[in-house]
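Worked example 3 (structure in, sequence out).
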């Protein structure tokens, strides 16, 4: 007898992975230059030069025992101090290493946080659609109840009334992800203040803390002069789950952290519960070499000019063709309204032209499709006729 939940999770690939595998087969059949794969959110910009310089420096300067040995479970002290100092410089906070727990990326940070907050099967975690599909298994496989607020397809901020109505005495946390995967939108200051307002009211009503779980792998990926509000400065009970996967293009290296500000209710217990949950994830400590690298590169900023160029080309070309898209102020995703109103069907139509777009059903927004534009600029240019053909097919049908 096996654990059915785990068997199910391991046996069924996500829609995104299915599409990616399909793309690989199409490449064999049609050639790489004729397949336009927008399925995966794998950074296409290399890690900053400073990351590679520091890897080499570390390999040359530390003994292999100190470089590759276990760090303490919470992470190396100097690394956590460097990250805290950088956050303090940028956001006017007063964190120390004791507020940080190093993790294997945002995924591990989210799992540990959710596990720490879910005490019984009826405890709820709420997400705001559209959202990263892994939230659901992260909550449910850890014994919690997952629910979500439906997408605000007008401007991809938040349906505040619905959020308020979904919060109950069993709500332990709300996951907030901005810049957002899959919509690319950034929650503005007004949105964050209104969420904070609702949670303050509800925490008082139910006489318990309701935490914001702030999932921030895209914090640094924001274009033009758009500002990403730093949520802990607006709501005390905020836990930040951060990752270097996208900001430093290190997704395979598995490095990130959980930030537990001292202003959180029961902050020490909360930190220890997250540490306990991380302990039974079984990874012992975040990868040591990568800890030292992000410690040395704590203030490093990504060069997002290539993503911005991709965004501008894709967004401008598609809107000119008649597609409606959420305006992507950050991350590297374009959320496209299905011209026929059904993302699953439109994804199949697009596949006929070797255009791979993820239907929004798994993000709980089934009228939109996600295009991850962390791809080669030339691929975007080559893909434009395929987008044109796909929308023409819909226009022709609706003419009849
Ligand atoms: N959260 C969101 C919104 C993501 O898009 C991703 C990865 O794509 C993750 C979390 C997980 O990131 P990590 O690679 O840091 O585990």
């Amino acid at each position: 007898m096996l654990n059915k939940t785990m068997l199910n999770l391991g046996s069924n690939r996500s829609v995104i992975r299915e599409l990616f595998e399909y793309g690989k087969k199409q490449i064999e059949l049609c050639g790489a230059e004729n397949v336009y794969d927008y399925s995966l959110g794998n950074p296409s910009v290399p890690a900053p030069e400073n990351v590679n310089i520091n890897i080499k420096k570390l390999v040359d300067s530390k003994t292999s025992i100190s470089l590759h040995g276990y760090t303490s479970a919470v992470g190396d002290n100097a690394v956590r101090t460097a990250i805290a100092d950088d956050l303090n410089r940028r956001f006017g906070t007063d964190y120390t290493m004791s507020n940080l727990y190093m993790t294997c990326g945002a995924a591990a940070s989210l799992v540990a946080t959710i596990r720490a907050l879910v005490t019984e099967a009826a405890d709820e975690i709420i997400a705001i659609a559209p959202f990263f599909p892994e939230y659901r298994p992260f909550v449910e496989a850890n014994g919690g109840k997952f629910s979500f607020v439906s997408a605000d397809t007008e401007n991809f901020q938040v349906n505040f009334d619905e959020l308020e109505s979904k919060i109950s005495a069993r709500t332990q946390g709300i996951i907030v992800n901005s810049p957002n995967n899959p919509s690319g939108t950034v929650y503005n200051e007004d949105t964050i203040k209104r969420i904070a307002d609702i949670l303050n009211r509800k925490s008082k009503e139910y006489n318990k803390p309701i935490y914001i779980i702030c999932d921030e792998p895209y914090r640094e990926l924001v274009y033009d002069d758009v500002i990403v509000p730093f949520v802990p400065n607006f709501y005390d009970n905020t836990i930040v789950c951060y990752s270097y996967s996208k900001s430093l293009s290190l997704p395979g290296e598995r490095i990130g952290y959980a930030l537990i500000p001292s202003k959180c209710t029961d902050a020490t217990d909360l930190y220890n519960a997250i540490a306990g949950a991380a302990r039974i994830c079984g990874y012992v400590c975040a990868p040591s070499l990568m800890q030292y690298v992000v410690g040395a590169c704590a203030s490093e900023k990504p060069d997002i000019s290539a993503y911005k160029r991709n965004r501008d080309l894709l967004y401008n070309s598609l809107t000119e063709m008649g597609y409606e898209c959420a305006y992507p102020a950050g991350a590297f995703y374009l959320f496209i309204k299905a011209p026929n109103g059904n993302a699953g069907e439109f994804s199949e139509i697009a596949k006929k032209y070797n255009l791979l777009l993820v239907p929004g059903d798994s993000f709980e927004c089934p009228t939109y499709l996600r295009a991850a534009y962390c791809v080669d600029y030339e691929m975007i240019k080559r893909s434009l006729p395929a987008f044109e053909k796909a929308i023409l097919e819909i226009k022709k049908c609706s003419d009849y």
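Notes: Residues 70-296 form a domain with the Aspartate Aminotransferase; domain 2 fold (CATH 3.40.640.10). The chain has a mean pLDDT of 95.
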